[in-house]
Amino acid sequence: MAPHGEGSDAAGDTTVVQAEQRPISNILLIIAMQTEAMPVVNKFQLEEDQHAAFPKGVPWVWYHGVYNDLNINLVWPGKDPILGVDSVGTVSASLLTYAAIQALQPDLIINAGTAGGFKAKGASIGDVYLASDVAFHDRRIPIPVFDLYGVGLRKAYSTPNLLKELNLKVGKLSTGDSLDMSPQDEATITANDAVVKDMEGAAVAYVADLLKVPTIFVKAVTDVVDGDKPTAEEFLQNLAAVTAALEQAVTQAIDFIKGKCLSEL
């Protein structure tokens, strides 16, 4: 996964090429909310590990286990120590992604979670998307070149065989730190040609790209952003049912990955 319009260093390229020829053995799932994470934890019978993989005092949570000879690690940012709510957003996601890559050395990252979808682009409640590209929509820097940096467009790792096998929808993902959508955000999301929007994906992509870890994005639609219902209301109404669809898609993806190299995805 490389930034749009940017090259990579030779050492990083060599590392990725070598990794593509080895069977995948270590998967890292990065999930933002406990409600999204627990169905996956239960499905794969993962166990929480409180070993010092992360710095002391951070709320981040790590589960791990073995499934079909694959090492499965799942991390989520935990609860805010003061307010007790899920630590959603790009700051928590980027910090956790960096620490988890350093500690767990994954072959592949799956950023799984819920997202808002746009009916104008064909999205409906319960649809599951495999993102083709990820970008930010709330980092507005109207200076030449800085504007491109702000959008931060990156391609997800290409998995044509996985996409065909799972029969998922595919579309572009746009990320911002707000659940609602301001007119300025809407204009950038439109410019990004996004089908779904979330609060973590592009931050995960940024860190994964820096550290040369192939990453895919599986996003299930909880709310229709350009629909008639208030976003927060629709999100909460559909969260439980959509996380079940998300868990099913993640399970199918991991079943497909078993025994394969990155180049076979």
From TrEMBL:
SUPFAM superfamilies in alphabetical order: Purine and uridine phosphorylases
Alphabetical list of CDD domains matching this protein: MTAN
Molecular function via GO: methylthioadenosine nucleosidase activity
Nucleoside phosphorylase domain: residues covered: 27-254
Superkingdom of the organism of origin: Eukaryota
Gene Ontology BP, a term: nucleoside metabolic process
Protein name: Nucleoside phosphorylase domain-containing protein
Species this protein is from: Jatropha curcas
